[in-house]
Specification:
310 residues, alpha/beta, FAD/NAD(P)-binding domain, 2 domains, seven-stranded mixed beta sheet, five-stranded parallel beta sheet, 17 strands, 30% strand, elongated, binds NADP nicotinamide-adenine-dinucleotide phosphate
Length: 310
């Protein structure tokens, strides 16, 4: 039996592995089908992580992984459920592309599976991801200085991304599938007051176009019925997030969007189960916060194991 099983090997999971390994805990990290790094590996250049300017997400996460080294054991697998009986967690997973099933036991579990950006699911989206298509203005906005960009979506994320980009870019087209925005009035007021944000409503994006890089979008104008286009150097997709919590929803308390309810100490409603990084309900989802959660949740887990508190 392991002292700790960490599910997910992004920034939060690897940070937890480092702290737990250094605390001499017996740790297993389960990474999804051999992919270390989850969302961050899709980021072109991470220039907001202190001390490592201009590394790609892939390079940075590899540095994290190297740093953990053999302080933890790593396996690939898709976790299907987590249950707890008499202070022992049982983690069920599928290995080898779903062909084999396995169960591991642990005293504590850290869920660090992150959240994935919902996709638009239109032609060009996958092809241009990292080459003009982005899901994070804070991460990639600086690369579009004085350029024209599209933000897709109508919720708070899309509005805050549009506002953020309006301070960097020449022009921001906020393209939404309905005539009315979903985001808060406070954000809407700021968006409509900004000189360089143009709201394009009733516009259903059909394709992200370009050759080597993004050159714009084509959309269906629901009012006129015509197909129209917008020229742009970047397309920021902000149509919601989807936390990866299906496997834990029977035991952990989730909020209405599926994020795990846990405070700054990463403690959940289940004793011995902790949530770290983007999967946790929190106001800011950034690399630095995920790394911080990884450290904090190990402290909470140590308190639980050694002193039986929390
Ligand atoms: P959201 O509120 O679910 O909004 C998603 C937006 O994307 C909606 O406008 C939706 O359109 C649109 N959309 C969804 N699927 C689409 C598709 N396939 N094609 C085109 N458009 C699509 O998500 P969110 O903006 O990420 O916000 C999530 C939660 O976090 C919300 O509670 C939000 O208030 C909160 N949040 C708060 C802040 C803050 O500063 N307080 C900042 C960001 C997020 P429809 O409107 O037509 O459904």
């Amino acid at each position: 039996m392991y002292d700790m099983v960490i599910i997910g090997s992004g920034a939060a999971g690897l940070s937890a592995a480092l702290y737990a390994g250094r605390a001499r805990l017996n740790v297993l990290v389960i990474e999804k089908m051999g992919v270390t790094g989850s969302q961050i590996i899709y980021t072109d250049k991470v220039d907001n992580y202190l001390g490592f300017p201009l590394l790609s997400g892939y390079e940075l996460i590899n540095k994290f992984r190297e740093h953990v080294g053999d302080l933890a054991e790593f396996i690939s697998g898709d976790v299907t459920s987590v249950s707890k009986k008499e202070d022992i967690f049982k983690i069920q997973l599928k290995e080898n592309g779903g062909r084999d099933k396995r169960e591991v036991k642990a005293k504590t579990v850290i869920v660090a599976t992150g959240a994935i950006h919902r996709k638009l699911k239109v032609p060009g989206e996958e092809k241009f991801t990292g080459r003009g298509v982005s899901y994070c203005a804070t991460c990639d906005g600086a690369f579009y200085k004085s350029k024209d960009v599209v933000v897709a979506g109508g919720g708070d994320t899309a509005l805050s991304e549009a506002l953020y980009l309006s301070n960097i870019c020449n022009k921001v087209y906020l393209v939404h599938r309905r005539g009315q925005l979903r985001g808060s009035k406070a954000y809407q007021d700021k968006v409509f007051a900004a000189d360089n944000i143009e709201f394009v409503g009733n516009a259903v994006i059909g394709e992200i176009i370009g050759d080597e890089r993004v050159e714009g979008i084509e959309y269906h104008d629901k009012v006129s019925g015509y197909t129209k286009s917008i020229s742009a150097d970047g397309v920021f997709i902000a149509v919601g997030m989807q936390p990866e919590t299906d496997f834990v929803k029977e035991v952990a308390e989730l909020d209405e969007y599926g994020y795990i309810e846990a405070g700054e100490d990463c403690v959940t409603n289940v004793r011995g189960l902790f949530a770290a990084g983007d999967v946790r309900k929190k106001p800011l989802r950034q690399l630095a916060c995920a790394v911080s959660d990884g450290a904090v949740c190990v402290k909470s887990a140590e308190d639980y194991i050694s002193r039986n508190i929390l």
